[in-house]
Amino acid sequence: FGDQLDWIVPGALGGNRKPSRIIDIVSGQQLR
Q1: Residues 19, 6: contact at Cβ < 8 Å?
Q2: Which one, 6, 10, 23, 27, has least CB within 10 Å?
Q3: Model pLDDT for residues 1-32, shown as the tens digit of each residue
Q4: What is the DSSP letter of 16?
Q5: d(C-alpha 28, C-alpha 16), whole Å
Q6: What are the distances in angstroms from CA 9 to CA 5, 32?
Q7: Cβ contacts of residue 14 below 8 Å, gap of 6+?
Q8: DSSP letter string, 2-32
Q9: Which residues does 17 contact at the CB level (< 8 Å), separation at least 6?
Q10: DSSP letter assigned to residue 1
C-alpha cells in the first residue's frame, strides 16, 4: 500500500516526489 501512495499522493500534488512526510503519515495510519 505504501508503494501505491508513493505515486498516488505525489501525483495528486503535481508529480512532485518531495512530500514524503505526507506519505509517511498516511501510510503509517494505514498500516496501524
Answers
A1: no
A2: 6
A3: 456 555 555 555 555 555 566 666 676 665 55
A4: -
A5: 20
A6: 5, 19
A7: none
A8: HHHHHHHHHHHTTS----HHHHHHHHHHHH-
A9: 6, 10
A10: -
